[in-house]
From TrEMBL:
Cofactor(s) needed: Fe(2+)
Signal peptide: none
Keyword presence, Transmembrane helix: no
One record GO biological process: antibiotic biosynthetic process
Name recorded for this polypeptide: Taurine dioxygenase, alpha-ketoglutarate-dependent
Gene3D superfamilies according to UniProt: Clavaminate synthase-like
InterPro entries linked: AlphaKG_dependent_hydroxylases, TauD-like_sf, TauD/TfdA-like
Keyword Methyltransferase in record: no
MF annotations from Gene Ontology: 2-oxoglutarate-dependent dioxygenase activity
Ranges for domain TauD/TfdA-like: 41-326
PANTHER family associated with the record: GAMMA-BUTYROBETAINE HYDROXYLASE-RELATED, TAUD_TFDA-LIKE DOMAIN-CONTAINING PROTEIN
Length: 333
């Protein structure tokens, strides 16, 4: 018996489009939402390029996404992955903390001593330019603690007493900084220039009062809102450095090192210059603490956040720790 073999040609194969997004990425609900690869060999950059709408929706709803288990081997690869969003990267000017620029627009996280806790804050909320998106990458996880706690500032606002919120809405916040070498940051470090004229032009452009004092010191003052409306979701948010920069938020041993609050590298007041009550500072701190969520870092983790919806901080730690930062999608107001 003779069998007839059916002739086969690649020309006869009809292309099919298969949506396997749900199969290759596992999404774990929570805060932050966790995205994990369901199989090996997934390019996070390629996946992100095709799923912007989904990622943006999760950021608008939840505020933070943790990408865990993807093959992002180093900080250069991290910067390449973030390029998938095709958003403007933000350079770190108007600085408030020491950092190293690893390469253009790629930074280390704040380089305060390991035994110090960094209070909750939204990046650059005191400034006239801040990132809507901020991403952290774990180059090296510490041996103990060192988490980056996160808190939804919509919920922080809801926890604050109505009377407190009303006062801050009415008066806003007055920020004062004394920029000098050896205590905090110098004006050269903050503004990334050696040119006083450039600094003065910046201050005038953004309505900041400034005065040069002896020993190459610069004092600046400016007002900003305490509560803002999110530009995408339309929700009210607690968005300021009012607690973070306040004298009362400093550790007692640091406060004791200054003979006068006028010598502090930064401080905050109500917008009219009156002091913020200690009771209100305690309530703000408590609201942050109640909303804080901690998770341990794992090497190659990427934490992507809506910087206006979610505040972050840093726990103390032991062992080497390197977290890298990219800021994206600047808002200028």
């Amino acid at each position: 018996m003779q069998f007839q073999r059916q002739q086969f040609s690649l020309k006869d194969v009809k292309p099919r489009t298969i949506d396997i997004a749900g199969d290759i990425i596992e999404k774990i609900p929570g805060f932050p939402v966790i995205y994990k690869p369901a199989m090996d060999g997934i390019s996070l950059k390629s996946w992100l390029a095709g799923h912007q709408e989904e990622v943006n929706e999760d950021l608008n709803v939840h505020g933070a996404i943790l990408f865990r288990g993807f093959d992002v081997p180093d900080r250069n690869a991290f910067q390449d992955v973030m390029g998938a969003f095709n958003e403007e990267f933000l350079s770190y000017k108007d600085r408030s903390s020491p950092r190293t620029e690893v390469k253009e627009n790629l930074y280390t996280s704040t380089e305060h001593p390991a035994d110090q806790v960094i209070n909750m804050h939204n990046e650059l909320s005191y400034s006239h330019t801040w990132p809507l998106r901020i991403a952290f990458y774990c180059s090296q996880e510490p041996s103990e603690k060192g988490e980056t706690p996160v808190a939804d500032v919509r919920k922080v606002l809801q926890r604050l007493p109505e009377k407190l919120v009303s006062v801050f809405k009415e008066k806003g916040i007055l920020y004062r900084r004394l920029l000098q070498k050896g205590v905090g940051l110098s004006w050269q470090e903050v503004f990334q220039t050696e040119n006083r004229t450039v600094v003065e032009q910046h201050c005038r452009a953004y309505g900041q009062e400034f005065s040069w004092t002896g020993n190459d010191r610069l004092e600046i003052r400016w007002q900003r809102p305490a509560v803002r409306t999110h530009p995408v979701t339309g929700e009210e948010i607690w968005f300021n450095h009012g607690y973070f920069f306040n004298f009362g938020a400093l550790a007692p041993e640091i406060r004791a090192a200054f003979s006068s609050s006028d010598e502090l590298p930064f401080n905050t007041y109500y917008g009219d210059g009156s002091p913020i009550e200690a009771e209100y500072l305690e309530l703000i701190h408590a609201a942050y603490e109640e909303e804080c969520v901690y998770f341990p870092w794992k090497r190659k983790d990427i934490l992507l956040m809506d910087n206006m919806l979610v505040a972050h901080g840093r726990n103390s730690f032991k062992g080497p720790r390197e977290i890298n930062v990219i800021m994206m999608k600047p808002i200028r107001q």
